[in-house]
Amino acid sequence: MRVLTDTHSLVWALSTPDSLSQKARKALSESEVTVSVANLWELVLKMGKRDALLADPLTWWDKYISKASIPVLSIRTVHVVTLGTLPDLHKDPFDRILVAQSIAEDLPLVSKDADLSRYGITVIW
Fold first, then answer.
1. Which of 3.40.50.2000, 3.40.50.1010, 1.20.1330.10, 3.30.1360.110 would CATH assign to domain 2-124?
2. What is the pTM of this model?
3. Which of 58, 60, 70, 118 is found 20 to 30 A from 37 (Cα to Cα)?
4. Reduced to 3 DSSP states, what percent helix, strand and coil does the chain have, rounded to the nearest 5?
């Protein structure tokens, strides 16, 4: 099984795995993990802010994602088209593009945000 991570789940999985639920840890350890370029985009945009998950996301990404050869899902036209069809149930633009990618790629999303399941996707937490 392949799974897609939201940004928090990705960072927690690699830095503080105890922050994940047992079900999320199991899914991430037993599945092919795919991350989204949206994860990096969110980390970079929040860099230096109070709610930043990482102080230096570019170095972290290179070390834990690029060098580990974790597959990175680009944002493609089909994802943006899918995003355009989503009802306005959630305001976070990063979560919304991850939902669109989850739908378009038929991937469950590992996320603590159970509200995302209202879009009809499988949310693992």
1. 3.40.50.1010
2. 0.94
3. 118
4. 55, 10, 35
Residues, the chain: 125
Span 83-123, pLDDT tens digits: 999 999 989 999 999 999 999 999 999 999 999 999 999 99
Residue 51: is its pLDDT beyond 90?
A: no
E-state strands within the chain: 2-5, 32-36, 72-73, 109-110, 123-124
CA 30 from chain centre, in angstroms, equals 17
